[in-house]
Design a protein that fits this description.
The structure is a homodimer of 149-residue chains.
Chain A lengths: L1 E8 L9 E12 L2 E7 L2 E7 L5 E2 L1 E6 L1 H7 L4 E14 L2 E8 L7 E7 L2 H6 L6 E4 L8 H4 L7
Antiparallel strand pairs in A: 1-5, 1-9, 1-10, 2-3, 2-7, 3-4, 4-6, 7-8, 8-9
């Protein structure tokens, strides 16, 4: 089970000291989500069940060959983004800066151990709206090219 | 982890009293195996890692819409077969009678709790060859249309 909240961003913090990864991902299916992702040199197949705050999630290893084989089968846009990992209290903020068709979208996600913890989370001042309940911000929906901004 | 042995068949037992399911399955990828399957009115996404006797396996729920959406993305043949469930000692023999392009193939699979149990299994007299180690009999390879018979 993945428990996370998603936010839009008011202003960017200084990112020069944070770790980041290059992500490329695309969707074979939206409901349930079947996603392929390249994360630097790692390849992953992800299945996500229903849900907004909490969702069943399985991450299974792929390799470069299978990623390349599956990519042409994907629907809609291939999403590219840089994900910064920003420590905040006991959490890690994942800040996604989208590229290509999805510029100027920037979003933050925070993952939690429990729903109680998720509800209790107080976001930093540079976060804007909580869009956890807004399906338009799911990457699987963003890949359809209908952007909420 | 799925631990199973596969066999070809010498002669068919009388099947009139056994339960059966209608299976339709196809492959989005072969290594790792990413399979979609319809099993009567149930839809499943299966991921299988490497291995012959023992393989990592994940079965995740799909629905009719996602199955229909993913089917055109599959490689090669769509495999249709009738699977009979035949009780044998403490096991269930899954006897697959293939249809369409894969006629006259008939195969049996038996699943085990451990590798020791798998090795100790004494097949019934109507089984023919043990093809567990022969990748050509993997359904993912059969779907490529190159049949070992």
């Amino acid at each position: 089970m993945e428990i996370e909240r998603k936010f839009t961003i008011k202003e960017l913090p200084d990112l020069s000291n944070y770790e980041y990864k290059k992500l490329t991902q695309a969707y074979l299916n939206t409901d349930p989500v079947i996603r392929i992702r390249r994360e630097d040199e790692k390849y992953i197949l992800t299945y996500k069940g229903k849900g907004l705050l909490a969702r069943e999630e399985h991450n299974l290893p792929l390799n470069a060959e299978s990623f390349e084989h599956l990519l042409p089968k994907a629907d809609g846009l291939v999403i590219s983004k840089t994900r910064y990992l920003i420590p905040y209290e006991k959490y890690t903020i994942e800040l996604d800066i989208f590229e290509g068709d999805l510029v100027p979208l920037i979003m933050a996600e925070v993952e939690f151990e429990s729903e109680d913890e998720a509800h209790a989370f107080v976001p930093p001042s540079w976060f804007d709206k909580d869009v956890t309940q807004d399906k338009r911000y799911h990457n699987s929906n963003l890949s359809k090219g209908i952007t909420p901004f």
